[in-house]
Amino acid sequence: DQQVKQNSPSLSVQEGRISILNCDYTNSMFDYFLWYKKYPAEGPTFLISISSIKDKNEDGRFTVFLNKSAKHLSLHIVPSQPGDSAVYFCAASAPTGNQFYFGTGTSLTVIP
Amino acid sequence: KAGVTQTPRYLIKTRGQQVTLSCSPISGHRSVSWYQQTPGQGLQFLFEYFSETQRNKGNFPGRFSGRQFSNSRSEMNVSTLELGDSALYLCASSLLGDTDTQYFGPGTRLTVL
Fold this sequence. Notes:
Number of strands of chain A: 11
Oligomer: heterodimer
Radius of gyration of chain B: 13 Å
Largest sheet of chain A: 6 strands, mixed
Shape of chain B: globular
């Protein structure tokens, strides 16, 4: 049972435009969320996180939005750059455990 | 500071064999988690070790096991390999586990023939 879902396997965006990656979760106990970026042949690298006490967190070009009532989070990348082309995973954890649940990933392609 | 290292990077085995994968965490990190990545399944959590103790375990059969040594290095073992075990196995280390940011290694690509 996939508790964290990324329903878009791929996304293409023009350079300079906004990229929006979406993630839905089913477990209302999740209170901490992360986004990872993964290049081919490399492990995922941490991008940005958000806890459930906030609804927005910004770090440079990256902003994560959390809508707890909808159990939905999104990652906005503005402006998108070709180097952002990678697979993006969202992950969630509950306060009761050390386990992170990952989505299946969205492959972002930024077209120059 | 050196990152998380995993050995070997690539491995080819046949069905029924067993395999051991190794992970060296970032110096000072005491938590090591293992994940399996397959197309369409994303990253599936296997288990997490902290100070040589397994703290959490995912929903994988008993053929998947692990351990952690006193220097925080961790090994993962898969016995009686099946074709479906072909995957990228990633380990991630963090300082204390919990909601600490995890730092991933490059992974071991296992192919079972």
